[in-house]
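User: Can you help me understand a structure? I only have the sequence.
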Amino acid sequence: MEERIIDRDKRIKLVKTGEGTDAVDETAENAAEDEEEEFFLELPEDFDENDLTPEQTEALERARRRSEQHAREEHAKLLEDGERLLEQGKFEDAVPLFEQAALYDFDDGDAKHKFWLARTKNYTDFDVFFEEGAAQEFADADPDVRAGVLGKMGSELQRRREECRIAAEPLRSGYAVRQQERAEAFEANRKYYSVRFWAVLAVVAAFAVACAVSGAYILRVKGNTPLICCIVFAALTVLALGVFLFYAHKLYVARGYVRVNLDPAATEEGTLLLELNKKLAAYDLVFGKEEA
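Assistant: Let's start by predicting it. Here is the structure, written out as tokens:
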């Protein structure tokens, strides 16, 4: 027997089963399931279900009813398992179950409410909104879900938000002033070593040229004067090169201080300010339009 089913994606599914009613004893306790062989046929965009025969239409509706029934059973099972975990206090384990249950189109919002109940550990974990993407996820939640969570946690969140504002305000003004003071000192230090770096480099180049010129006259001029001059300039070049490397290192470090000063995380004060700003941004997303 061959049964043709049209699924929601407009594909024809042919299922071949045993021949006749005697092929499978459905009342037998250990009856084996029919062996199925399936394949799908993509239908054109202008496909019209009115073109189906009554038998095909009935088969399509049966398939849809079976699919919906199965989905509702899965949804109910997810909610049941999630609620059992909530009763046991296993909030983290319940989160993915409610998250999956909320994906079903026919969910009435119960799963979404319980998802945030589990994620906030029964509305007691106020730091959950600081996790990566959590505040934005809450901001995108349904209005009734947001209202329910804020009804439980809003007052405490507002209090903590105000504490962050009070702590961040003096840090912002003080940090900006101190950063500017450090920037001026670091820039002066960079210029100091930059001038000496280029000056010593010029000296190294001059001694190296003098050494080369002296060496060129060793074989041309009688006497030891060119050789002595070449040795002296070579020694001076090496000495100047050592000084040059010293100032090159100092200049590299000075430039590093200038760059680091631009990064707030480079200081304890700046790190604290970044953390407070991050929390305030999360609070802004959490309250959104509900904020006064």
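Now, to help you interpret it: The first strand starts at residue 2 and ends at 6. The beta strands are 2-6, 11-16, 37-42. Let me know which part you'd like to focus on.
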